[in-house]
């Protein structure tokens, strides 16, 4: 049995550390430490190996416990200063503990006299990391993007966001290092890779304490613009959820706010701008609906018309519509 075992050992392919020493030699012949010397004095065989193992275990326990008692609370306080909630703090604290554990492991190996082995493992780990990184580029991209979301905080859980030029919108339900989950207003759940959000323009209407809204009212050409303006402002001032400061305003609709600006084919455009506090999607829709309804009722009572859009069919056939229509009939 002994001969077979030694023959098996002889056939093994040695793995060398960067300085040329064999890994098995490093493990079986660690540097003699204080504990190893103590064991040697008591005549315990393999005192250097057992001493190194005991030193490693003690060092790992002490360093990791010290890190848990100092580094983790320190990182937790930093996260609290950024006003992160418990759900957002949990993955960051886990990552902190993982990094701290790796550092404690590396330091413990060095203290135990396995510094050369640590160098070898680091080289192997670097090569493995490179191979894994090439195979998981998208996942790593999403992970890095998730880190930026946690650091930059363009949005938080519970925020209403829009992206892809308004194609997608909803309430953020969950943020992980890989994806962000958004609940649409139709109650659909969107699982969005973090890299999509960090590479696009994100609109967060509720990032601030106040939100400015606007609505375009159209009145007839024969109606009194000043009277309509007064009604729009009065109803804004009456609504309890519309702020007095900044004060509501009414201006002639700009060309960028509608197809024809203030003077459309069938109406004169008046744009009302007003502010609400503590905005969210529900408050936004509720306030706008109540406000527009109140203005519409006042317009009806004052005899101010809100005309429907009209299409000039004659203009679709050029300078001589009669000829064009005749040619179509034939």
TrEMBL record:
PANTHER family: SMALL-CONDUCTANCE MECHANOSENSITIVE CHANNEL (PTHR30221:SF1). InterPro entries: LSM_dom_sf, MS_channel_C, MscS_archaea/bacteria_type, MscS_beta-dom_sf, MscS_channel_2nd, MscS_channel_C_sf, MscS_channel_CS, MscS_channel_TM-2. It comes from the Archaea. Residues 138-205 form the Mechanosensitive ion channel MscS domain. It is a multi-pass membrane protein. Keywords: Cell membrane, Membrane, Transmembrane, Transmembrane helix. Pfam families: MS_channel_2nd, MS_channel_3rd. GO terms for cellular component: plasma membrane. This is Putative mechanosensitive ion channel. Residues 215-306 form the Mechanosensitive ion channel MscS C-terminal domain. Its main location: membrane. The chain crosses the membrane at residues 49-71, 92-111, 117-136. It is found in: Cell membrane. It comes from Halococcus thailandensis JCM 13552. One of its GO terms (molecular function) is mechanosensitive monoatomic ion channel activity. Belongs to the MscS (TC 1.A.23) family.
């Amino acid at each position: 049995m002994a001969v077979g075992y030694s023959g098996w050992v002889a056939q093994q392919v040695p793995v060398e550390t960067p300085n040329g020493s064999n890994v098995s030699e490093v493990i079986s012949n660690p540097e003699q430490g204080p504990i190893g010397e103590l064991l040697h004095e008591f005549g315990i065989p393999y005192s250097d190996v057992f001493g190194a193992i005991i030193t490693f275990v003690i060092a790992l326990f002490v360093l990791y416990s010290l890190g848990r008692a100092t580094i983790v609370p320190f990182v937790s306080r930093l996260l609290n200063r950024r006003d992160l909630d418990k759900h957002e703090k949990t993955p960051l604290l886990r990552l902190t503990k993982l990094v701290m554990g790796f550092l404690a492991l590396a330091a413990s190996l060095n203290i135990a006299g396995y510094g050369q082995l640590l160098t070898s493992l680091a080289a192997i780990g670097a090569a493995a990391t490179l191979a894994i990184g090439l195979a998981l580029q998208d996942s790593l991209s999403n992970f890095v993007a998730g880190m930026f979301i946690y650091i930059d905080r363009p949005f938080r859980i519970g925020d209403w966001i829009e992206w892809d030029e308004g194609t997608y919108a909803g309430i953020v339900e969950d943020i992980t290092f890989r994806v962000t989950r958004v609940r649409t207003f139709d109650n659909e759940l969107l699982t969005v890779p973090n890299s999509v959000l960090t590479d696009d323009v994100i609109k967060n209407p509720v990032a601030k304490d106040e939100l400015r809204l606007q609505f375009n009212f159209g009145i007839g050409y024969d109606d009194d613009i000043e009277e309509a303006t007064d009604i729009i402002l009065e109803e804004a001032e009456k609504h309890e959820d519309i702020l007095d400061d900044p004060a509501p305003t009414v201006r002639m609709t700009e060309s960028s706010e509608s197809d024809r600006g203030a003077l459309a084919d069938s109406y004169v455009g008046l744009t009302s701008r007003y502010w609400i506090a503590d905005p969210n999607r529900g408050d936004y829709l509720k306030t706008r609906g109540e406000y527009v309804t109140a203005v519409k009722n006042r317009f009806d009572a004052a005899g101010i018309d809100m005309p429907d859009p009209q299409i000039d069919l004659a203009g679709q056939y050029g300078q001589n519509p009669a000829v064009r229509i005749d040619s179509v009939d034939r």
